[in-house]
């Protein structure tokens, strides 16, 4: 089974980082205000970064490492991997 770590760009310019085994369904929940407490009050605009993992533990470890990064470090990670959080 595959696991995803993802970053969402929110309307206020903040980032939300999460992990899941079903990315499409999880993003849909976030967009509908049912994914996480944070995304209820910080409406997500789009997925700006995704990593794929073979194990849940690997995905959770990576999620924790990304969550510890500053906003600028997350933006650098996104840009480095050819994602653009600024463009629509």
Question: Which strand order does the major sheet show?
Answer: 2-1-3
The rounded distance between the terminal residues' Cα atoms is 31 Å
The helical percent reads 40-55%
Count of helix runs? 4
- How is the biggest beta sheet arranged? 3 strands, antiparallel
Q: Beta fraction of the residues? A: 25-35%
What gross morphology would you assign? globular
Q: What's the CATH C level? A: Alpha Beta
SS elements, strand count: 3
Second-tier CATH architecture: 3-Layer(aba) Sandwich
Would you tell me the overall average pLDDT? Answer: 92
Query: Under CATH, the topology is which?
Result: GIY-YIG endonuclease
User: Could you say how many structural domains there are in total?
Assistant: 1
Structural class: alpha+beta
The helix/strand order is EEHHEHH
What is the CATH superfamily classification? GIY-YIG endonuclease
Computed over alpha carbons, the radius of gyration is 12 Å
Low-confidence runs of at least 5 consecutive residues: none
